[in-house]
What does this fold into?
Amino acid sequence: MSTEAKSAMTEFTSNLRSVPRRMLESAFRSGKPNTDRTRSTFVFSNVFLHLHSVRTHRWSLRWTTTMGLGLATTAAFLITLFTGVLLMFYYKPYPDVAYQSIKDIHFVVPTGRFMRNIHRWAANVMVVTVILHMARAFYTASYRRPREFNWLVGMGLLAITLGLSFTGYLLPWDQLAYWAITIGANIAQSPREVTDALNLTDYFDPGGFQRSLLLGSEIVGEEALIRFYLLHVMILPLALVALMTIHFWRIRKDGGIARPADADARLEAPAGAVYPVFTQAPQKTYQLAAIVKGRTSAVERGPENTVPSMPHLFYAELAILMLTALVCVALSLVSDAPLKELANPSVPENPAKAPWYFLGLQELVAFSAFMGGIGVPSVVLIGLGLIPYLDREKAGTGEWFGGPGGARLVRRSLMVGFGASILIEAFVIRFGWIREWFPHVPQLVVTALNPGTLLTLVYGLYSVWLVKRYQSTRAGALGLFTCFLCGFLVLTVIGTYFRGPNWDFYWSPSLWPHH
Amino acid sequence: MTVIPGSPKSRLDPDPMPRRDWLGLASLWSAASALLFGLVGSMRLPKAAVVAAPSKTFKVTLPDSLAAGEAFVPAGRAVAVYRDAEGIHAISTICTHLGCVVKSNAEGFECPCHGSRFDATGGVVKGPAPRALAWLQVKVSGSEIQVDEGKAVPSGTKVKNA
Ligand code: HEM
Ligand code: FES
It folds into this structure.
């Protein structure tokens, strides 16, 4: 009796002692990832890691393939998610109270200012990296079959990223926020510029509908703030996560990152010990062979030139995450997020500037509200979305500046892109535009014919010419995309550094008149 | 096509729809239409039937020292009120471009946001504003002036003491 009791007790204590180890084992059932087999099970027995494939092609791991830009965007998003949730503990979405709560976060809450800074900076980093990532996917022609749809998903991600930044800009309820909402809501209303000119507004008023949908009222007030708050902390982040999941899953289903057809031949032999390029023949490949796409069967042969994602891919991803965090923290230490005076509905900030990535748009809006805020951006978005469906060529996929014309064409397009935008801007700044020459010209003329639409037209014609000249859609796309990047850059720089009070041109802020 | 009872079925005759398929389709369609109705109904949600907004009419008394052609801006209102020999008029100072509040200057008005300029009657002389600044309805009784920010009147409408 006593021996039985004793042995049960011994078992109990030994079980108790092994609890931590058993817990770990039950959570990570595959054991240490140190063989081909366990490296694979490590990936596919984990719901998060399984968004990746078990093995990664060595081409995908080259630094120049992706430059880690998509991942940096993901990392920046995770950072904003984390810091944003912390900020939500103190932020109160009600006019004036909101301003006070941001002030509290900034000056009273321990580490509050630091968190707020990181949140701001990570959001800015995210906008930069998402644009660069899109440029990378474009210039390496990675949007082609079977990746067309993922390009569209990416555009959704771009739109949501910008939406998140804009809605976030409004939450502090300071002067910048208030006037940015006012301008934003009126851009939503700007189809009235056209319906008014046609005397249609009384019957058909999409502009007014959009505005009241955003503001929930006729004025910018509590209803508007709660709407933007909800968009910022719930609706847009959820939508972003949903689209991101599709984006990542698709990359995997599309056979990983795009690579040139001759990638295998161009890769050097792996440095033996560093890259275990397949050491054990996979089992059970027959069943998979029926559903996995590909030209060759991988039975009894590892897929060539792939390495286990654990550790090669995951460590690279971790490095990029750490690097992004480092950049955000470093920026937050040297520069504080801004907070102007409390919103004042009777005196606009002068100049009232949107966040920097919208200053290019603000420059366009300063020519025509409808064309700058809705017309030209729609044309650009539709154009971007059509790229993968129009360019169905093969040459240059997975290759930087791949396709007819290549890097030389891009360099030329840089000159056209910068040249045209700077020329048109310089002309307007020096000589003004139609309204100043003929004050009584109908509004529709100015709406249709303004520097923004003209620039779009020049870029469009140039790219049509390229299609003819090189007999290739890809060449046209290369030219157009490059031109739009140039235009975006020029307009943004002018809006940021060269516009002062009353949106007048100044060579430097030190020349602004003081009142 | 006439079908003689008992004759063999033609290859072209449609297969009768099995009952299960019919039930399945019916439930799919009813689910879809229920969803659609729900969606259309909830489209009304974003706009409240009555929205709280500050009153659009207000009363002011102009200071005696106000010179002809000089703007008087009541505190907290985006309106400039003028008095001259022909009477009293009020011009909205909300820019017709994107809703910033314009400032009156010697020539008329200027907008800080995208540089629209207006002359003294509110007409656009420069910049992206698509329309002239609105003239607002004014009622005068004695020294008290009532302005309605919600009602526009044709440009040039000046009101004398009734
Ligand atoms: C929140 C925004 C986004 C996130 C987090 C994101 C994330 C990623 C990641 C992690 C990859 C894997 C390769 C890499 O790291 O570059 C990727 C690939 C890709 N992304 Fe995005 N992305 C975003 C937005 C976009 C946008 C705006 C576009 C283009 C319109 C786009 C188009 C693509 C395409 C086509 C691929 C496949 C590239 C290839 O196979 O080589 N993505 N994305
Ligand atoms: S709001 Fe007045 S010029 Fe844009």
Observations:
- The pocket of protoporphyrin IX containing FE (ligand 1) is lined by residues A 66, 68-71, 73-74, 130, 133-134, 137, 142-143, 147, 150-151, 154-155, 157-158, 161, 244, 247, 251, 257-258 (CB under 6 Å).
- Strands of chain B lie at 57-61, 79-84, 87-92, 103-104, 108-110, 117-119, 124-126, 135-141, 144-153.
- Chain B touches chain A through 30 residues (CB under 8 Å).
- The radius of gyration of chain B is 32 Å.
